[in-house]
Amino acid sequence: MKIIVPVKQVPEVAEVKVNPDTGTLIREGVPSILNPFDELAVEAAIQLKESHGGEVTIITMGPPQAKDALYKALAMGGDKAVHMTDRAFAGADTWATAYTLAKQIEKMEFDLIICGKQAIDGDTAQVGPEIAEVLGIPQICYARHIEMSEDGKSITVHRETDEGYEVVKARLPVLITATKGLNEPRLPNIMGIMKAKKKPLEEVDAESLGVPEDEIGLKGSPTQVRKVFPPQKKAGGIKIEAEDPKEVAKKLVEFLAEKGAI
Ligand SMILES: Cc1cc2nc3c(=O)[nH]c(=O)nc-3n(C[C@H](O)[C@H](O)[C@H](O)COP(=O)(O)OP(=O)(O)OC[C@H]3O[C@@H](n4cnc5c(N)ncnc54)[C@H](O)[C@@H]3O)c2cc1C
User: Tell me: the pLDDT tens digits for 103-154?
Assistant: First the structure.
């Protein structure tokens, strides 16, 4: 079974701040990590390979330093990697990102694509479903449990919903997005880390991808970010305290009356 896992390198979001004057993200000095939802996707792919055999290919579109995310996934147990890197890919919105990834995936053999549910920086959860649309294959989003059939031709997925979960079965090829609870991603061991840099890693640029220039990067992006700003800080609430609940209720009524709310 051939499994492809698209992964994104993201900044450690807890440390990202917005420059209030320019409205841009301050990325300097912020460490980069493999998107945590993508770790779930990599783990799911490796577990399927371990139980059903096959090969796991990790793919990313990103700047040169995004290679570190590929190495981490290879150290976890991925077999090979594809790094789509070119200045022409820069500034891509979710559509151009998905289109660029899908055009490369189209050239590769695959039975299953496993994405993360969302990237913790962009947070749109659009790239996975958009890749499936470009490829014209079914998608099952928010997977928290995956079961491959004995013959390896279909997959059953428990997908999270607002009310509980749905059980969906699909014939391969299919694209799945991974959510929390799917598994516990393994930590790469020393042997895995040492082997990672010796595994095949192919670089793909815009020319070798062979798609029109106006379909990729900023030129191929229909979305425009007009303004980025941190949400306004909410003022803290007040706490009404007293020994007797009746006294609390009385104080609350007085407070609301004072504010003209009743
Ligand atoms: C006009 C515009 C300009 C932008 N310019 C930039 C820019 O210059 N630099 C920048 O970093 N961001 C830029 N962005 C943000 C960029 O569009 C998104 O980060 C990117 O398209 C992915 O969307 P997301 O982060 O919401 O991913 P989601 O849709 O939340 O990701 C879901 C899953 O898709 C897969 N995935 C997502 N992105 C990738 C990837 N690159 N490679 C492989 N798999 C992936 C992963 O499995 C991930 O878990 C720009 C956005 C817009 C609208």
Answer: 999 999 999 999 999 999 888 999 999 999 999 999 999 999 999 999 999 9
Question: Residue type for 182, please?
Answer: L
Which domains does the chain possess?
2-215 (3.40.50.620), 232-262 (no CATH)
| Residue 92 and residue 220 in contact, taking contact as beta carbons nearer than 8 Å | yes
| Whether residue 119 has its Cβ less than 6 Å from ligand 1 | yes
Q: What angle do CA 37, 72, 87 make, to 5 degrees?
A: 85
Structure tokens at 112: 């299953």
DSSP state letter for 64: G
Helices and strands: H and E segment counts in the chain:
7, 13
Give the pLDDT confidence of 56-70 residue by residue, as tens digits: 999 999 999 999 999
* Ligand 1 contact via 179 beta carbon (within 6 Å): no
- Other C-beta atoms lying within 10 Å of the C-beta of residue 245: 8
**CA-41 nearest atom, ligand 1:** 47
